[in-house]
Amino acid sequence: MFGTPRDISDENWSIRFIILCWLIWKRRCSFVLASEVRRMEDILTSGDRVADRLAAKGRWLSNEPTVFLTAPDDVINLVEDDKVLSNLVRLPLGLSKVPGLYVQPPNERIDKENAIKLELPPIDLSKLDGPGHHEVAEQIVRAAETVGFFQVVNHGVPLHLIQSLKDTAHKFFGLPLERKAVYLAPVSPSPLVTYGTSYLPEKEKALGWKDYILMQYTGDDEALRYWPDEINGVLLEYMKSSIVMVKRLLRVLLENIGVKSDDSMIDVLIGKKMVAMIFYPICPNPDVTIGIGRHSDIGMLTVLLQDEVGGLYVKVEKDMDYEKKAEWIEIPPIPDALVINVADMLQVLSNGKYRSAEHAVRNTNINSRVSVPIFTMPIETAKIAPLPQVVEKDGIANYREFPFGDYMNNVFTNALDGKKSLDFAKIS
Ligand SMILES: O=C(O)CCC(=O)C(=O)O
User: What residue stretches are annotated with the Fe2OG dioxygenase domain (predicted)?
Assistant: First the structure.
């Protein structure tokens, strides 16, 4: 029944042989993979011409989905296990299931069943300079005081520019990875430009399902020199005409709280600008991921260009009209409209009268989406505190005074967490 001693020894040899082959194969794989990763780390920290070197590694760094999908599971697991590396390498486009690092805890997801669409018509800014001024100003103020988000049309930003920007964004993110990887944070030729997926992967609970390129504006010359050539022209033009609109909106909002603003005041309040281009790839499991997690913007006003795909949601706060109806309000795309939202500094200056809205982006499994936000914010040395005219009226200041640079540093060293950023300034 048990066979002869000779038989047993034969069986032992074949089992040993199989185990030996398996061990050699496994050792070889882990050696290859570990060295790949070490070389990646070298590259990413070396400050070398990263593009050439990443290009040479196209086998699994390519953003060709099929190439990535043919990579051994171990490669995917390695990238999956390392948040920072995964953030730097690439979203695994084309996967049929999102890797674990992108799966959000249930309380961070956006449940579509728990959301309503904001059906308010967009505000027509062409009427702001005519007899309709009062009515339009009231619409802007009401929106800033309630949801903190509104959409505008006839805003003065040329429509051909908006279309061209969307096309440019799709083209840019469609470039081979090595062309974009030169802007990865550790190796970017300028601190003004950063490419990545999640903003602070080492601190976030799960990664965002997106890619972004973030550019600081410090002047035209620097923008033309350091922002990617493929996008700098159209982005600069878009930013400049958007800023004209931001100034008009800001004047209306300040006037409503009794503050007469002049050019020098506005220049301080929106003296710092950042522009991002964001790409949300099609997601196989949009119910468990998030494009950008819950956050409020840190500056004054944000101008957002979103394409026709949708996915932008505002969190309903306790005292909102929508409180009993839903947890989220969807801001649907409107052709030719731009989205405007109130950010933290405007909430502070208005002593809480204007609402910096907590918002997030949900992915879809139907289309990839692009958006282009322009963040306007005070210069870093500006001392921010509720404006005296509002404090006098309210009888109390709800926020302390601080330099904007300190606020910014605090936000940029912490993971996104809804409106927690404002705790830095609150007097409780
Ligand atoms: O992509 C969007 O619609 C929103 C982007 C956003 O919230 C941000 O970049 O802060």
Answer: 265-378
